[in-house]
TrEMBL record, chains A, B, C, D, E, F, G, H, I, J, K, L, M, N:
Coiled coil: none annotated. The chain crosses the membrane at residues 55-79. This is ATP synthase subunit c. Residues 14-76 form the V-ATPase proteolipid subunit C-like domain. The gene is atpE.
Amino acid sequence: MDSLTWIAVASIVMAGLTTGFGTMGPALAEGRAVSVALTSLAQQPDASATITRTLFVGLAMIESMAIYCFVVSMILIFANPFWNAAIASVAQAAGK
Amino acid sequence: MDSLTWIAVASIVMAGLTTGFGTMGPALAEGRAVSVALTSLAQQPDASATITRTLFVGLAMIESMAIYCFVVSMILIFANPFWNAAIASVAQAAGK
Amino acid sequence: MDSLTWIAVASIVMAGLTTGFGTMGPALAEGRAVSVALTSLAQQPDASATITRTLFVGLAMIESMAIYCFVVSMILIFANPFWNAAIASVAQAAGK
Amino acid sequence: MDSLTWIAVASIVMAGLTTGFGTMGPALAEGRAVSVALTSLAQQPDASATITRTLFVGLAMIESMAIYCFVVSMILIFANPFWNAAIASVAQAAGK
Amino acid sequence: MDSLTWIAVASIVMAGLTTGFGTMGPALAEGRAVSVALTSLAQQPDASATITRTLFVGLAMIESMAIYCFVVSMILIFANPFWNAAIASVAQAAGK
Amino acid sequence: MDSLTWIAVASIVMAGLTTGFGTMGPALAEGRAVSVALTSLAQQPDASATITRTLFVGLAMIESMAIYCFVVSMILIFANPFWNAAIASVAQAAGK
Amino acid sequence: MDSLTWIAVASIVMAGLTTGFGTMGPALAEGRAVSVALTSLAQQPDASATITRTLFVGLAMIESMAIYCFVVSMILIFANPFWNAAIASVAQAAGK
Amino acid sequence: MDSLTWIAVASIVMAGLTTGFGTMGPALAEGRAVSVALTSLAQQPDASATITRTLFVGLAMIESMAIYCFVVSMILIFANPFWNAAIASVAQAAGK
Amino acid sequence: MDSLTWIAVASIVMAGLTTGFGTMGPALAEGRAVSVALTSLAQQPDASATITRTLFVGLAMIESMAIYCFVVSMILIFANPFWNAAIASVAQAAGK
Amino acid sequence: MDSLTWIAVASIVMAGLTTGFGTMGPALAEGRAVSVALTSLAQQPDASATITRTLFVGLAMIESMAIYCFVVSMILIFANPFWNAAIASVAQAAGK
Amino acid sequence: MDSLTWIAVASIVMAGLTTGFGTMGPALAEGRAVSVALTSLAQQPDASATITRTLFVGLAMIESMAIYCFVVSMILIFANPFWNAAIASVAQAAGK
Amino acid sequence: MDSLTWIAVASIVMAGLTTGFGTMGPALAEGRAVSVALTSLAQQPDASATITRTLFVGLAMIESMAIYCFVVSMILIFANPFWNAAIASVAQAAGK
Amino acid sequence: MDSLTWIAVASIVMAGLTTGFGTMGPALAEGRAVSVALTSLAQQPDASATITRTLFVGLAMIESMAIYCFVVSMILIFANPFWNAAIASVAQAAGK
Amino acid sequence: MDSLTWIAVASIVMAGLTTGFGTMGPALAEGRAVSVALTSLAQQPDASATITRTLFVGLAMIESMAIYCFVVSMILIFANPFWNAAIASVAQAAGK
């Protein structure tokens, strides 16, 4: 197994793990926030404007963390500096 | 085991893991959101419009995370840049 | 153990794991949703139309995740691009 | 250990795991749904028709997941494409 | 360790695991269902016919999963196609 | 370590594990069922006939799972087809 | 490490594990049953005959599982067929 | 590491584990039973005779499991048939 | 596997893990904070100014921890001093 | 690593583990029993004689399990029959 | 793998782990503190000055622990004495 | 690694583990007991003499387990019979 | 890998682990203490002096444990006696 | 890796683990005790003298366990008899 393969395998594994497991926390957190919003709406329908607004701000902040994970996965697959360096070094060796 | 095989195995394993485990969080979160929506509907049937609307926005945001996972799996199976690079390098070696 | 065997073993293992474990989250979530629907029906029988409708939308969204897992398993068993590539390469080597 | 053996062992192991563990989620979910149905029946005997109907729809959807797992196990034992390919390749080698 | 032994060991291990662990989920689920049935009977003795009927349908569906596990164990011990194939291949080699 | 030893060791290990761990689920489930039966009896002594009957049916169904595990252990120790096949093959080799 | 030693070590390890861990489930279950019996007695002293009778039946069924585990341990230590077969085979080899 | 040493090490390890972990379940169960007995006594001092009697029967049955574990440990340390057989075989070899 | 590859693989793995798992705690914490804010708003709409202000300060402090994790990931991918030192040392060796 | 060392290491490890982990269950159980005794005393000061007596009997039975663990540790350190046998066999070898 | 690489890899791994996991405790703790502050504000708006002050002191103390973790990570990446010593020793060897 | 080193390493590791983990159970138990004592004091200040006395007896019994762990650690570090035997045997070998 | 490197790697790993995980317990404990303080303040604003004083004493004692962990980490990084001894021994060897 | 290094590494690892994990139990226990003390103070401000006194005694006893852990860590780092013996033996070997 040469260097290129090791880097490719590590990138594939981490891209999957980061997205696959990293969305668990935000998903549960959003599920909780949405649930409580629904309870609050049923309990106090008059405050629905404030509740909805606060809910969306909160969901946005929680969603931001899932997006960090997705961004790291995408960087690892499509813009991986270690892979680029390894490819360049192989090309350089071949061009000699 | 050559490089191609390693990359293929890693892609297969992570495609399965990412979808298989990555849907656990969103599934539980949606189950919770739906449950609470049903309780709220039973408790306050008059607010059903607001509750249903908020529920669907929430489900959409949670579902988005399961879709991130599914997308990463599909990328790993059908549009894997590391696999393409390895195939190209093998073809190039054979074409020499 | 040659390349074909490694890919076959990895596909078998992940097909089982993805379906076997990936249905745990949706199953628990559906169990929760159904339970709460029953409680709500017992508590507010008049709202049964709204409750049933919301329940079925929710179950459909949760079931979709179990189906993602099943689809990934089926792709790994019956439409695995890595396996096809490996078979083709073996056939090509034999045809030379 | 040759290729055939590896594939056989992997199939045996995953057939057992997929059924053995994959029924845990649905079993717990059905246990919960049945329990709540019984509570609801005791609490609101008049709504027993609606409750029973909703319960059976729910149980059917949850049972479907256990059946996905059982189907994957049966495919791995009795209709395994990788095993068939390996057997065919061995027969072909012997027939040469 | 030859092929026959590997297959035998894997079958023994999975037969035990599948039954040993696969009955945990159904057992807990049945325990829950029975418990709630008893509570409901104590609370609403008049509905005992409906409660008992629903309980038995539920227990049957949950028991079905434990039986899937037991069936897979028995198939692995007494009707294992991989073992049969391996035995046949050994006999064929000896008969040559 | 020859084939016979491997099969013996695997059988011993799985016989212990299957009984040792497989009784945990049923034991907890029976503990729960019995506990709730006692609570129900204390709460509604008049329904003791129905409660006791339902409890015994439930305990029988749960106990059946512990017995599946015990049966598998006994099969692995005293009626193991793989062990018999291995013993037969050794005897045959010695009788040649 | 010869065959005899492997079988002895496996038997020792599983005898300990089966009893050591297999009593955890029954112990917790009995603790629960006894606790609830005490609560019920304090709450409804008049029903003490029925409660005590039901408790003893329940304890007997739960204790039966701990005894399965103990029996398996004793079989593994004092009536192990694999050990006997191995001892016999060694004696036979020595007697030749 | 010869056979004797392996058997000795395995016996030492399992003697410790069986007692060390096997007392956890009974200890927790007894703690629960005693706690509930104290609550019941505080709540219904008049029934103290029945409560104390039931408590002692329950403690005896739970303690019996801790004693199974201790007995297995003592057998493994002081009356281990595998160790005796190994010692005898060594002595026999030396006496030749 | 040379030094460069080891450092690249370790950086890829930790970048993924740090972001993927490090966002779990903050996500759950924000989910909790948002949920309670919604409950409080529904319960005391008059105090919405104070509640919203305190919520945003709290979210900012919790978010700061997710950002620590993301920063560490970015440093490991794009400004890794160990990688730079290794690259420099390789370049120096090549320039000699 | 000779036999003596293996036995010494195993004894040291198990002596620590048995006491270190084996006291966890009894400690938690005693903590629970003491806590409930305090609650009961505060709730029913008149029954303090009965409560205290029952508490001490219970503590004694729970403490007995911690003492089993400590005894096993001490046996393993100071009265280990395997160690004595090994020492004797070394001395005998040296005395020849 | 030479010494420099080992130290680099260990530093990278621990820098990620320390920040990635070390923020979990403080994050959950802050989430709890903020949640309770919001509940208290909704319940007793008059005490908002005292509540807010106590909250900020508490958040500061909890945040301090997350900062310990971040500081250790930064020390490991940018001011690692072991790395500096290793670099110096390599430079010294090269300068000889 | 010679015998002395193995014994030293094992003793160091177990001394740390026994104290480090073995204090967890007693610490949690004491925390529980103290907490409940405080609640009881606040609820029934008149019974403070009985409560305090019972608390101290309980704390003493729980503390005794932490002290068992500490004693085992100290024995392993400062009065380890296996280490003494090994040292003596080395000295004897050197003195020959 | 020579001695120096092993000691450096171990020190780096433990410095990170000790701080990274060791702050989890204190963080959760402080979060709990602060939360309860806020609830108490909202419930009994008149006792704020006593509550605040007790809170700060408690936080100080809990913080002390996080500081023990940080101190151990700092000792391992900057005042490690084993590292110093190893450096000294290397210098002495070089100076010979 | 020679003996000195093994002992150094083991001491470093255990010093970190003992303090890092061993403070978790006491920290959580103190957090609980402080929390309950605050609740009790808010509920019964008149008993503050007794509550505070009992709290401090309890904290002292819990803190004592954290201090055991810290003491063991310090002994392992600065007064390790195994390290001293190893150093002495090396010095003796060098002085010969």
